[in-house]
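Deliverable D5.2: sample structural annotation.
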Amino acid sequence: MSSTADALGAKTPRNALLILGARTVSRVIALVMVLVMANHLGASGYGRFGTLVAYSALIGVVADLGLSTLFTREAARRPDQLGDYLSTLIVGRIPLVLAAIGLLTIALWQAGLSSLILPGALLLALSGYSTMVRNSFYATGRLGLEVVAILVEIGMLSTLIFVGARIGASVSWFVWSYVGSYVASITYTVVILQGFGIGRLRLRFDLALFKDWVFAALPLAAGFLLTNLYFRADIPILQHFRPFAEVGWYQLAYKPFEATQFVPLAVQAVVYPLLSVYFASAPDRLDRAYQKFFKVLLMAGWPLTVTVFVLVHPLGRVLHLYPQSEPALRILAFGIVFLFINSAFTAMLFSTNRQGRYAWATATAATVNIGLNLALIPLFGYLAASTTTVVTEAVLSLAGWWLVG
């Protein structure tokens, strides 16, 4: 186990830079494509697309139950078992995915988006499987292969979105575009896993292992559900009280804010397996690695907060945001620094088997978020949603600081 820690530790700085570079390129391209799509569809059409994505993210937790994150941790500790773990999870998640699709169907029907049920169901299913199989690269430190996966996915997505905008496509085309990108991503990953011998997939299902992992992952699932609630619940609430156009204004403001999240998530994806291994085999290195991780994220997040707040109007013109989106983005800028440091708290709690504490932290944040949104959105609309997002991130930071300490 100590050799695994040494190997991952040596690769971590290089891998972090590699993934950060790839994520930067992909996020820039993705943001451009979202702007193309949003300006093509208009605020109302983009609001419908954003509502579907929000429901898919919320209900997608049911399809995964935190198993993808648990897989990354356990496969990093026992890479020789990766193929068996992944084979069991691929089969075991099928009934979970079907249950989630049923819930999504009900949600989209009541929101007046029944025409998007089929592509939305495939989006939910394939996005989860794509994340899970690609976590194999993070667990084994094979981040060069993940870079290619990122480029395959964004290449397919940007091509389909560009074509859709050129031909005047409807909302459903763009949902199918995301489905196509996940198909490309999964196909590439499975071929690479088999071809490089990273994990041999076969028709195998270990019921005992799956049961143990489901119980172990339940706190993770609770945490992810609550995280998605405070990240996404504002969209269904806003859509219930306000027209789809206002959802579109808020969603387009949210995109630049959300785009900054790729930095902490990219670094977290690389550092999380390392912290997991250190916790199991080299605890003397754990706290030092975490402190460095936290400081890097804080030093990156604060300048971004200031930059976005000060330059929101020029950014709005460059990014072709809706004029109504700029006030929301100025408010959201205050949440960027909290968004960054929360990744450090999350990685530390997960890697040290304290996922139960993370669930409590996100429960607190979700309660604050939903309560404030229900109280304020009927009065102040999308600007209330923006303010509540910042308050929620700050609450989660305070809870994370206390729980990690």
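Annotation notes: The mean pLDDT is 85. The CA atoms of residues 346 and 353 lie 11 Å apart.
The annotation will be released with the project's public dataset once the embargo ends.
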